[in-house]
Structures are given as structure tokens and as C-alpha cells.
Design brief:
With about 160 residues, this protein is an alpha+beta fold. The protein folds into 2 domains: about 45 residues, no CATH class; about 90 residues, Immunoglobulin-like (Sandwich), CATH 2.60.40. The strands form 3 sheets. It has a 4-stranded antiparallel sheet with strand order 3-4-9-8. Strands 5-6-7 form a 3-stranded antiparallel sheet, with no helix packed on it. The protein has a two-stranded antiparallel sheet with strand order 1-2. A hairpin with a 2-residue loop joins strand 5 and strand 6. The radius of gyration is 25 Å and the shape is extended.
Length: about 160
Amino acid sequence: MGIALLSVDRSGLKIGAVGSGEAMETKFPSYWMWSEAFEVLARAERMHRQFIQPSGSRSPVAWEPPVDILETERAVLVLVALPGVDFDAVKAVINQGDLLISGSRTYPEEMRTAIIHRLELPQGRFERRIHLPAGRYSAIHRSHSNGYMLITLQKSGAANG
């Protein structure tokens, strides 16, 4: 025995039974409601990540930059996407087998009084913790170009065999 669900338009009028073989148009409001519900949940999740900080953190971490990690015989290469970030203020530290990259991105002064139409680029403090491949590293070199920071972790002589 199946369960029949009724689809109702915005005025509350019955316009068809879901699963009854009726055209998609008669079921549209129920799909629209689910779509809206999922969008609200996604928005709540984004806000939760933005405003809830991990315990023990000095200040809230607003975002994590995306990274690519590659390994050669002599080095581990970490490419970090940081458009709009002052690279001189970015910190990169190895701590207990992890590379910790942190810094901040802020709006330019002229944008602080502007009318906002859309915000997609995260602002504020960022932090990214990356577990490194096993081994010892003798040096950290940093360079940047086109909004990316390349962090090169030179493997020590013992790691090269």
C-alpha cells in the first residue's frame, strides 16, 4: 500500500497528487519548497563556519585558503591561493609534523565605505594546517606570483637517501 502526497500551490489549493503520473508543472511548488529549504540549510552551515571558532584559537579563523601539495625527491611544494593578501604578513611554520599557514585579508580602505552588492571573497583571519609527509625538512623558502604563494620545504640530506 503506497502513501499519496498532495501537492499544494501557494494559495493552499490542491493541484495534484505526487506520484500520480501528473505533469511536472503540477508538482513544482513542492520541489520549489525543498529547494528553498536546502538553500536555507546551506546558508546556515556557511554562517556557522564563519562565526564559530575552534577552541584554543587566538582569534576567529574566517576562512581556509585552498592548497595544492606536491612532492619531489628533494622538496615538498605547497601552492596556496591567496589573492588580495599581503604576502609579507603571511606566516608559515612547521610544528609537530604540520605546516601552519596563517595571515589575514582585509578590504582596501576605499571599499570600507562602499555599498555592498555581493560578497564572495572571504575576509579576515585565515589559517590552514597541512599534515606533511614524514621526513625532516632543512629549510622553508617562500615566493609568490599572481596571487599564489609557493612554499618550498627542502628535505634534509637524510630524507633524500
